# Entry
Amino acid sequence: MKMFPEGFLWGGAIAANQCEGAWKEGGKGPSVADVAKFADPQSQKDLLDIHKLTDIDDEAIAKALATDDETYYPKRHGIDFYHHYKEDIRLLAGMGFKVFRLSIAWSRIFPHGDEETPNEEGLQFYDDVFDECLKYGMQPLVTMSHYEPPLYLVTKYNGWYNRKLIDFFTHYVDVITKRYQDKVKYWLTFNEIDSIIRHPFMTGGLIESRFDPEQFEEVEYQAMHHQFVASALAVKITHQNIPDAKVGCMLTKVTFYPYTCKPEDVLEEREKMREIYCYSDTQVFGEYPQYLLTKYHNKGYHIVMSEEDLKIMKENPVDFISFSYYSSNCVAKDTSGLDVTTGNTTMAIKNPYLPSSQWGWQIDPIGLRISLIDLYDRYHKPLFVVENGLGAIDTIDENGEIQDDYRIDYLSEHIKQMGYAIHDDGVELMGYTTWAPIDLVSNSSNQMSKRYGFIYVDVDDYGHGSYKRMKKKSYDWYKQVIEHNGDNLFED
# Structure
């Protein structure tokens, strides 16, 4: 049975801030990722405090910049992709990747973010990376901004709260799309643009302590508006510079279920889903949904937006919708007495019908199919699953092998649900990139021990190790999936 279309884009996804390292090499300036400290969470309770894991203030920034330490600031070393990219891309190509999602570090191109002239050494690095991908027939899928605004734009301009960042960002977009116009045809603007509400420093460069606590949510939505305008302009600029390019938005697809069929719980679920969909609604339809404008009105928020802003957004919607999906969540109007667990930078009520990962994320393959149906029915535009994977503790056995059958099981069940969504539900799905095909520094807690890859990297949570790469059992499994275009998973 043929479940996936010919030309389906199989691959994997990484982010520069979690992989590259070389934080002071090649003319790169510091980004918000370079001051993110290893949290070393010792318990589930620590992992539940998402805000603690991702927030930072001026004092913490000053302390971080006063040291070159890479042990407690692990994104400074990552997995040293900067020096290993040829080896890494060769290994990924060995699985038959059709596409490789990666990001450009903005501060590697513009070290401060507000310069007029880009850093040639940074531009050349990505030329070399993209050439290496294309040598193996892998199409780069490039995220323009993935959790790493240049730190200078944060400390001097107050991050995306300042409207000037629209101009700085669009200048950066113009430079990279002109430079790579013959090498990159698939682009994403902002990674998980909705996450600015959950971790405002990492996504929007907002230092919460600089603002009145009672007004900070309004600050977040103002910054979000500036990102919406910048994203729309990025779509426009990319289409001008690369007429055959496809530009997508990127959403954290958090799928909520009502904990019970009580109407109050069902209404809570609808309200939670609107908190997710408001971001994609705006970028796909090119205008703010009325429910979000009503929220602004009811809360007394005054979000500064010009008629020209709204015109730009309307005229430049995205070409496709990409999203991350790891798990689903339950919600209830009254949460008293209910168990709470973690998710992708979220906290949620534990679903009694689902197993959990070692980090407490609920494993729900059918939730991916539900997500695909919901998104396609809502937008009628192509979809792209650009993050899906299992973070787990991998161990090397006495034979020097990593038997990660749990990862194979997780991915196999999710891929099957994608196949059903395409074959049975009529969803138009462009491709699938697992997070992450090679081990990297986990985003919120900055851990290496939370591993996702088909390829093991010998580095621990403190940056100790040989950085040697080795294949896990899942490597050959995914190679077979790609070789058979997913059909081998449905032979039973």
Remarks:
- The two ends are 10 Å apart (CA to CA).
- The longest strand covers residues 139-145.
- DSSP finds 17 helices and 14 strands in the chain.
